[in-house]
Design brief:
285 residues, 30% helix, 5-stranded mixed sheet, 6-stranded mixed sheet, alpha/beta
């Protein structure tokens, strides 16, 4: 669920071996059945389901307003691993993803994105008390045996490798909630994720904590920051365009801002959500 970096920095190729594209339902079909399938990766505070199976978080709660504006009566929420979001969109298993997945050039070649809905920085989850005094992603690039976990399909792996972290020091997990157990069991010394994800995990267990005085990663002299948006299959132009029209109208409202801040986004995050267009983010090289 994230994005990335500053202009001038690019990820290596990814997901090039995906299955062939399957035609997903178009906007007319969705309106005819009066229902849309929206995927989340169960990642707080971006997109997750509550105990009643309802979508919550910055993505689903904004999406609910957008879908209502389009006159679509029902949302079928689909939970999947983060790494399955792009394959699922391309294979037509759901119509839209509300996981605040980062808008990256390589992903733009595989799926369609709305305009940015959110922006967020990085964070680091460590063992309680931070016995190794880890404060930055670059700490894993030194001559030590410290290992760092990342979620499969997220771009923290590429950030770490761009900072010189060896691949053998990176442990991959499928879901965010696994990070607590991995750190407690000593399988990794920290978990690299967005700052908001780290804060949410910190609140779930006394065995871990967010690294204090975390140093934001810098690549090519630019601070790493992500812009997340709603995602669609590569043929879903009409649905993407319709969502964009209502999203652009909704973003300047207090209701949109309140949704983000209630989920931990700062005023800086709110303002920066307007900084770049999806066209600019997809064109970074």
């Amino acid at each position: 669920m994230r994005i990335t970096k500053a202009p001038g920095w690019a990820l290596p190729p990814l997901l090039l071996s995906l299955a062939a594209i399957t035609q997903a339902a178009d906007l007319d079909e969705i309106r005819e059945r009066d229902s849309i399938r929206i995927a989340v990766a169960n990642e707080e505070p971006y997109g997750y389901l509550d105990e009643n199976g309802e979508g919550r978080g910055a993505g689903p709660e904004v999406a609910r307003h957008l879908i209502d504006e389009l006159g679509i009566g029902d949302i079928e929420w689909v939970v999947t691993d983060f790494g399955d979001l792009i394959p699922g969109l391309r294979e037509g298993r759901f119509d839209m993803a509300a996981a605040e997945m980062a808008i990256l050039p390589e992903r733009c070649e595989l799926i369609l994105y709305s305009e940015p809905n959110t922006t967020y920085g990085e964070g680091l989850l460590v063992a309680a008390g931070n016995p190794l005094e880890l404060q930055a992603y670059a700490d894993f690039a030194g001559r030590n045996d410290h290992r760092v976990a990342v979620m499969g399909g997220a771009d923290q792996r590429e950030i770490l490798m761009a900072l010189g972290v060896a691949e053998e020091k990176i442990v991959t997990i499928a879901r965010n909630e696994e990070a607590i157990e991995v750190i407690a069991a000593g399988e990794a010394d920290a978990y690299a994720a967005t700052g908001l994800t780290v804060t949410a995990l910190d609140q779930q267990s006394q065995a871990v904590e967010a690294a204090l005085d975390f140093v934001d990663p810098m690549i090519d002299g630019e601070e790493v920051r992500s812009w997340g948006g709603f995602a669609f299959g590569p043929e879903a132009h009409e649905l993407r365009d319709a969502i964009n029209e209502v999203l652009v109208a909704y973003k300047p409202t207090r209701a949109w801002e309140r949704t983000l801040t209630e989920h931990g986004f700062t005023q800086e995050d709110v303002l920066n959500a307007f900084k770049y267009s999806t066209e600019q983010l997809c064109a970074w090289d």
